[in-house]
Amino acid sequence: MNHSPYVFEGSSFEIGRQHALMVVEKYEQARQTLENSPYWQRLKKPWPWKILQKLQGYYLITLLQKQLDRVRPASDYLNGMLSVPEMKPSIYYFLLLSEVLGADRTRVVQGCCGVGCKSGESRLLGKNFDYQYPLAPYQGAIVRQEKSQFRYVAFSPVLMPFGGQFCVNEHGLAVSYNYAYYRKGNHPGGLPASYLVHDLCRSCQSAEEAVLRAKQRNYPIGNGASLAVVDSQDFYVVEVVGEKTGVVHSKSGLLNTNHFISDELAPFNFPDSTRFSLQIPELEQLPILESSYERLRKLRNRADRIHSLETLQATLGESTDKNGMNNIFQTGPFWGTISSYIFNVAEMTVYEFKDIRNGQATVYDLKTLLSSSSLICSQK
């Protein structure tokens, strides 16, 4: 896990180019790390499966390309990545599709969860990030500032084109992202939900403003997502899929997991283990879920009992099914919770845990981090 941040500054095109230089440096090493792991062996499939996956990828890339002209910053950023000669299209499309599809490309269900609470006069937002164990070293902090936009830091997989798992900007607006499973049907097409996380943090000063921007966005989201949006005043859960948006508001706290709880997106919540994807064993083992209303009630009741840094940290470390909820700290055989984050809004600090159950954290002073001006495009 890297503790020295990358710093990308300039136009969207220039930032895309800077990011690509870092990606090509690390991608081959990451690929070899993954292929040498026991996890990779279960991904090997016969040629009919590979052909089906390629067709699926081609279909989704076609849908994605149709949207890029409507979103100039995203188009410029991705063109910047492709301007680096070493950024082969095969690498670029694999990473981009992995974001659009959650972790379907590697047949891993990407979970994640968010927990928010009031602690005294401050608000806290916690986040568990679930990923493939072999790729745990390839995550870190990236400080970004596009011209005329707000400066923010993203804690995420550094290889992903967007990688907006947990972002905080200079105004104390925090946005975290969970993959949300939705009812089986035609894939909506569009940009990764992680792009929306970046869009909100670079453009908005408050949670209320971020919610409005999410509702008024001019691009669809290609995967279901549940976003926690927090500032010094409010907690929101913002849910998106395609061009649909649902919002749940709270003054006291939140707990968001991997399916929809808003009234607006209730029709997309899946009542069983079916959704748009190729067969994924983990999904087929998921229990039947309650209605959005029942799930929201349970999450709110659980969130009401989280009222301090200690109780939030304990909640993020729970690895057994409690209070009618799925596990929060994931411990699967090949994937699970590889890092956790807690953001203190009043102090502008982020606690990063490699394993939140042992209590040892790296603490980031965001005021210092976001004032850094040194450009870092590679790390050894």
Key traits:
380 residues, Penicillin V Acylase, Chain A, eight-stranded mixed sheet, six-stranded antiparallel sheet, 32% helix, globular
Description:
This protein has 380 residues and is of the alpha+beta class. The chain has a single domain (1-380), classed as 4-Layer Sandwich (Penicillin V Acylase, Chain A). It is built from eleven helices and 14 strands. It has helices at residues 12-35, 38-41, 47-68, 72-82, 89-100, 193-203, 207-215, 281-284, 292-303, 309-316, 366-369, and strands at residues 6-10, 113-119, 122-132, 139-146, 152-157, 166-169, 174-179, 221-230, 235-242, 244-250, 253-256, 335-344, 349-353, 361-365. The strands form two sheets. It has an eight-stranded mixed beta sheet with strand order 1-4-5-6-7-8-9-10, with helices on one face. β9 and β10 form a beta hairpin. α1 crosses α4 (72-82) and α6 (193-203) crosses α7. The longest helix has 24 residues, at 12-35. It is globular, with a radius of gyration of 19 Å. The model is unreliable at 103-108, 272-288 and 375-380 (pLDDT under 50).
Task: Explain briefly what this protein structure is.
32% of the residues lie in helices and 25% in strands.
Give the DSSP E fraction (strand runs of 2 or more residues). 25-35%
Q: Looking at CATH, which topology would you report?
A: Penicillin V Acylase, Chain A
The overall average pLDDT, rounded, is 81
- What count of structural domains? 1
**Low-confidence residue ranges:** 103-108, 272-288, 375-380
**Largest beta sheet: strand ordering:** 1-4-5-6-7-8-9-10
Tell me the name of the CATH class: Alpha Beta
* Sequence of secondary-structure elements: EHHHHHEEEEEEHHEEEEHHHEEEH
Number of strands: 14
CATH superfamily: Penicillin V Acylase, Chain A
For the record, give the distance between the C-alpha atoms at the N and C termini, rounded to a whole number: 12 Å
